[in-house]
Specification:
380 residues; mainly alpha
């Protein structure tokens, strides 16, 4: 199952790479890492303790997917020259800042049909000064270490993810291209969910696999939904199989076996919390909101009806409810409604400047206005 989990994490990289350095959401998440820092990590740089957890998670997924698909450490036209460890002898060269500045950043920038371009060719294309000839000889010597005779023209993952131009439907295509390698395991996951929610039409299953992108802007929250979808949480039932003597009982209600579905939904204590969330959402939306497992867990928001803004609101509300449940996952106490409400207030205030920066504050009002009105709150 782990390989399937990588797919959604890798999608975050595409968000980082799109002309999205101006996007306030990802600028905030990458505040401590510049472009070079990210590329260094993607191509073998050291994952130090200072690397944010969200970055660490997606980088490990990227490396795992490359290994799984057979592209790990294969040099292509998109292999970076000055960062990472894939071309360590090249990345370790000093004095090539000018080359990077004028656009010589990837192996494909200096590589011809079958070998390294001549210095004269690089002069014509990039305007290299003749004083850089010695640097060219250094680079050629460093590349000779790898015995590069022919490059793979492109790695599908690099082309799709690092271009930042996946376009409409690109995310789904990437997900499917990764999942197709292990369809039996993905079918097994679907069977587990159908055991809880009943039969799922092909369209519903596809929507559920991509629901995280409709629920939240923050990649951290999207990854939370991804973990829920793939049941990526340890449970007493699982730990009892791993460790002799470990009790498979629920820490809240003492029920057994305490598997994933019990902790996330069936536990009476957790059900009480879900019921309270459902009543609050019904009051906010002014109509009954039935929080079934399809809606609350899989994010099939069309089941609740209403317009897109109200569905987006219900999606965020259920996502934050799952976050609170996850925070108390193996603890004997249940999340409180006050904590969930505080999380909702936080999400509303956090998203407001993002919508303002994107020039569409009206969308934020449509999503969160009814929440503020219901509790007598104000924006900002």
């Amino acid at each position: 199952m782990r390989r399937l989990l990588w797919a959604t994490q890798i999608l975050v990289i595409n968000e980082w790479m799109c002309g999205g350095w101006s996007d306030p959401t990802y600028r905030r998440e990458l505040a401590c890492l510049g472009y070079q820092g990210v590329m260094d990590l993607l191509y073998g740089g050291v994952l130090s303790r200072t690397v944010p957890e969200i970055t660490r998670s997606v980088v490990l997924a990227w490396r795992g997917a490359l290994t799984w698909t057979g592209w790990n450490r294969k040099h292509t036209l998109m292999t970076p020259l000055w960062v990472g460890t894939w071309l360590a002898h090249v990345a370790g060269l000093e004095g090539f800042a000018k080359w990077d500045h004028i656009g010589i950043t990837l192996l494909g920038d200096i590589w011809g049909p079958s070998s390294l371009n001549s210095f004269e060719e690089l002069q014509r294309e990039f305007g290299l000064h003749r004083s850089q000839f010695f640097k060219y000889l250094q680079l050629r010597h460093a590349l000779a270490t790898y015995g590069l005779k022919r490059l793979e023209e492109f790695n599908p993952l690099e082309v799709k993810v690092l271009s930042g131009k996946m376009g409409r439907g690109g995310v789904s295509r990437l997900y499917k291209s990764l999942v197709i390698h292990t369809p039996d395991r993905f079918d097994c996951l679907r069977e587990k969910w159908e055991g809880l929610v009943g039969d799922l039409e092909e369209e519903d299953w596809r929507d559920a696999s991509m629901a995280h992108r409709e629920m939240a802007i923050s990649s951290r929250l999207r990854l939370l939904q991804w973990k829920i979808f793939h049941m990526a949480y340890r449970t007493p039932a699982l730990l009892s199989k791993m460790y002799r003597g470990y009790e498979a009982r629920c820490p809240k209600c003492s029920g057994a076996p305490a598997d994933f579905f019990h902790l996330i939904w069936h536990c009476p204590v957790t059900q009480t919390f879900w019921a309270k969330v459902g009543r609050t959402l019904s009051g906010v939306c002014g109509r009954p909101i039935a929080l079934t497992p399809r809606v609350g867990l899989l994010g099939l928001l069309f089941d609740v009806g209403g317009n897109r803004a109200s569905r987006r609101f219900v999606g965020m509300a259920t996502l934050l409810a799952k976050r609170e449940i996850a925070r108390y996952w193996m603890r004997p106490v249940s999340p409180s409604m006050s904590e969930w409400r505080a999380a909702m207030d936080w999400a509303a205030k956090t998203e407001e400047p993002i919508y303002l920066a994107r020039g569409c504050p009206h969308k934020h009002s449509k999503i969160w206005g009814m929440w503020w009105d219901y509790f007598g709150l104000q924006s900002g």
